[in-house]
Specification:
The chain is mainly alpha-helical. It has 19 helices and four strands.
C-alpha cells in the first residue's frame, strides 16, 4: 500500500496560534498592570504603617480608610459573586459547564477588588485573580470571534495559562497548570494555544518587570547525596501539614458563620485585624514573596521562623475565609518556604547541616507544600523552578513533591481547587471503589463528544461504560450524564472484536470537530 505524503499547512492549528498570541498579548498587558498596581499600592501601604508607627494619633483615620476599603470590596463582591476568592474554581467551573458569568463584569471588578485586597497587605496572592483575569480575556475574545463552544473553552484555557505566566513570569508552569489542574488531560489544540498565550504573556510581562525571575535565589549549591534521606522526611511532613491546611481552609465557612456579622460584611474582619500586624510587622504584609527572598539570604532564628509561620498561617486563613478577591497560591508557597527554613535550621542546629543548604530546603518545601494542597506536582515543580531561576534542584523537587503527594493521597486529600468548586456548585458526586482492567478513553476539549449525553454513545455488544473519571472523582455513568473535556471513560470489554472497536472509537472520540 502506498501512502500519499503532503506538506499541507494545518490551518486550524495556525489559526489557534494566532488567537493564542492575541489572548496572551491582551492578558499579558492586563495582568502586568494588575501586578504593577498591587506592588505600587503595597509599597504605599507599608510606608503608611511606618509613618503610623511614629504618629499613632492617626490610627483612627487609617482605621476609617481600611473599613471603607472593606466596604467597597464587599459591594463589588455582592454585585459580582464570582469574583470571590482566587477565581481558579470559577474558571474550572466555567470550563466544565457548571458555572456561567459575564466575563466583562468579572474582569473589571476582579481587577479593582484584587488590587484593593492584595495591595492592602492582606495575606493573599495575585496569581489566582490573574488566572481569572486571563480567562475572562480569553472568553471575551472568543465572544468577539463568535466561535463554537469548544473554541471558547480553548481560549479561556489559554487565557488562564497566560494569566499565571504573567503573574509569575512562568510560562511553562502556566501551561502545565491548565493541563494538570484544569483539564486533567492532554489536548493538542489546548496545549498549543495555551503555550502560545503563556509565552506571549510572559514576553509582555518581562517588559514591565525585567528578566530576573520573581524569586531569584542566585547561586544554589547542590544538596549532597547523603542528605537525600532528609528530603523524604520533609515530604512526609509537608504531606501531613498540607492535608491539615486543606481541612482548615474548608472549615472556614463554618467558623466565619459564627461571627455576629452578615456574610456580606466578612471582608471587614481582615481589614481590621491587619492593622496591628502592619504596625508591628509591616515587612511581612502581602502575599509573601519578599519573605521567601529574605529566608534564602539570611539565616533566621528558629523561634522567629516558627512564630512567622503561625502568624502567616492563621491570618492567611482569615484573609481567604472572608471571601475577598485574592488567591492562596503565593501564600501557600510562602508557608512552604518557611517550613523549609524551619526544617533546614533544625538540621543545622542538631545535625550540623551547613547553612548554605538551608536555601535548598526553602526551595523544595515550596513545591512540596503546594503539591500537598493542590495535588498538582508537575505544576509545582516547574513553577518553583521558573520562579527561582535554577534547574539544579529538579531531583530534590521531584522527590519531595512525590512524597508529599503520596502522603496527602493516603490521607484522603483532594485537589483543593476542585473541592472549592464543589462548594460553589454543591452537588453529590457518587464515587465507586474497586479495581478492574478497563480500556481508558480520554475526552479532550475539542472532542466531538464533549457535551454529549452518555445515552447518545453507540456502544457495541460486549462493552460497558462502567466509570467516568473526572478529576479526583469517579462517577457512575447514567444515561443523562453529560461528558466533559478532561473526562476519562473507563470501558469494560471481554472480546477481541470489542477491543478493536474501542481503539477505533478512541480516535473518533477525540476527532477534531473542525
Amino acid at each position: 500500500m502506498k501512502y500519499l505524503h503532503t506538506h499541507a499547512i494545518d490551518t486550524t492549528r495556525l489559526l489557534f496560534i494566532v488567537k493564542g498570541i492575541l489572548v496572551g498579548a491582551v492578558a499579558g498587558v492586563i495582568v502586568s498592570l494588575f501586578r504593577l498596581s498591587i506592588e505600587t499600592v503595597s509599597a504605599l501601604v507599608v510606608s503608611v504603617y511606618h509613618y503610623l508607627g511614629a504618629h499613632p494619633h492617626l490610627l483612627p483615620l487609617w482605621l476609617a480608610v481600611s473599613l471603607a476599603t472593606g466596604v467597597l470590596i464587599a459591594l463589588l463582591v455582592r454585585w459580582e459573586p464570582q469574583i470571590k476568592g482566587s477565581g481558579i474554581p470559577q474558571v474550572e467551573g466555567l470550563l466544565a459547564g457548571e458555572l456561567s458569568y459575564n466575563w466583562f463584569s468579572v474582569l473589571w471588578k476582579k481587577f479593582i477588588g484584587g488590587i484593593l485586597s492584595v495591595g492592602s497587605g492582606l495575606f493573599l496572592g495575585r496569581e489566582g485573580p490573574s488566572i481569572q483575569l486571563g480567562a475572562a480575556v480569553g472568553q471575551g475574545i472568543s465572544t468577539w470571534f463568535k466561535g463554537p463552544s469548544y473554541e471558547e473553552k480553548i481560549l479561556i484555557s489559554s487565557g488562564a495559562s497566560a494569566g499565571l505566566s504573567a503573574a509569575f513570569n512562568a510560562p511553562i508552569a502556566g501551561l502545565l497548570f491548565v493541563l494538570e489542574e484544569i483539564h486533567h488531560s492532554f489536548s493538542p489544540l489546548v496545549w498549543l494555544t495555551a503555550l502560545t498565550s503563556a509565552l506571549t504573556a510572559n514576553f509582555v510581562s518581562l517588559h514591565f518587570f525585567g528578566l530576573q525571575p520573581v524569586l531569584y535565589q542566585g547561586t544554589v549549591s547542590d544538596l549532597p547525596l547523603p542528605y537525600y534521606g532528609t528530603l523524604v522526611v520533609l515530604g512526609l511532613i509537608l504531606g501531613g501539614l498540607g492535608r491539615l491546611y486543606q481541612l482548615n481552609l474548608l472549615s472556614l465557612p463554618k467558623l466565619f458563620g459564627k461571627l455576629p456579622l452578615s456574610s456580606n460584611w466578612y471582608s471587614l474582619v481582615p481589614f481590621v485585624l491587619i492593622i496591628p500586624i502592619g504596625l508591628f510587622f509591616p515587612l511581612y504584609l502581602g502575599g509573601g514573596n519578599q519573605i521567601i527572598l529574605q529566608l534564602s539570604r539570611l539565616h533566621q532564628p528558629l523561634l522567629l521562623l516558627i512564630g512567622l509561620f503561625v502568624l502567616r498561617y492563621l491570618f492567611s486563613m482569615v484573609s481567604y475565609g472572608a471571601g475577598l478577591p485574592g488567591g492562596i497560591f503565593l501564600p501557600i508557597l510562602t508557608l512552604g518556604g518557611i517550613l523549609g527554613a524551619i526544617y533546614g535550621t533544625i538540621l543545622h542546629t542538631w545535625f550540623g547541616l551547613d547553612t548554605i543548604y538551608i536555601k535548598n530546603f526553602v526551595i523544595v518545601a515550596m513545591a512540596g507544600y503546594f503539591t500537598a494542597i493542590g495535588k498538582a506536582p508537575l505544576t509545582a515543580i516547574i513553577l518553583v523552578t521558573e520562579m527561582v531561576g535554577s534547574i539544579n534542584h529538579l531531583m530534590p523537587l521531584g522527590l519531595v513533591s512525590l512524597t508529599a503527594y503520596v502522603v496527602v493521597d493516603l490521607l484522603g486529600g483532594h485537589p483543593i481547587y476542585e473541592t472549592l468548586l464543589e462548594r460553589l456548585q454543591p452537588k453529590q458526586m457518587a464515587s465507586i471503589k474497586g479495581k478492574t482492567h478497563v480500556i481508558e478513553l480520554p475526552v479532550t476539549v475539542e472532542s466531538m463528544y464533549h457535551g454529549c449525553a452518555v445515552r447518545d454513545l453507540n456502544w457495541p455488544e460486549h462493552t460497558l461504560l462502567i466509570r467516568i473519571r473526572r478529576g479526583a472523582y469517579t462517577l457512575i455513568p447514567k444515561g443523562d450524564t453529560i461528558l466533559q473535556a478532561g473526562d476519562l471513560l473507563m470501558v469494560l470489554t471481554d472480546s477481541v472484536e470489542s477491543n478493536q472497536w474501542i481503539k477505533a472509537q478512541a480516535l473518533l472520540l477525540n476527532q477534531n470537530q473542525i
